[in-house]
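Hello,

Our lab assistant flagged a job as stuck in the queue for most of the afternoon. It eventually completed. Since we weren't sure the result was trustworthy after the delay, we are filing this so someone can double-check. Below is the sequence as submitted and the structure that was eventually returned. Let us know if re-running is recommended.
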Amino acid sequence: MKALVVYCHPRVESFNHAIKDTVIARLTHAGAEIRLLDLYADGFDPRMTAQGLEFIEDKTLNRVGIEDHCAAIEWCDTIIFVYPTWWYGLPAVLKGWLDRVLVSGVAFQMPPPEGGDIIPNLTHIKRFGVYTTCGASWWLTRFIGAPGRRTLMRGVRLLFAKRCRTSFAAHYLMDSSTDASRKAHLARVARKVDRLVA
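-- returned structure --
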């Protein structure tokens, strides 16, 4: 198993850091080969520049400056995202990572000349996990539409294998969390990772 963990949080003392450590511990226990992309620690630049947008469909140029990230997503058969949900969605750095890394020739192929949808290019990914925290409650997040979850679990998921196994867990009401609720969530994440990679 080749597992890529995409981690996005600016503070090393955050609860998301503990979630990431739990994910890596369970992957290690399962014997996975692991690569970690720590977007903040790596100083990943999420901005889509005018030049980047101009080259987005040019497979000879759209990897420039992000070669390691593209290689990592092409290498893995398992991908797990760990991040905080901010304003019901993805942190800007993670959204920028999707914009810049999931480009033509890496994540998908452009539609044929006669038209249609893009063609998935990451069908080697057979396991997909998303573990997050939310300041809002479950019901409010669902009322808003959970755009972060939908972007990953519906949109990005379509790029993977048709029978890709999925796993999702969120600690809601994070701003009023307790030691007990955080401990329970880490145990839940550990169980979900174990089932995902079993």
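-- support follow-up --
The delay was a queue issue, not a problem with the job. The result is valid. The first helix runs from residue 15 to 29. Helices lie at 15-29, 50-54, 67-75, 92-101, 138-144, 147-155, 179-197.
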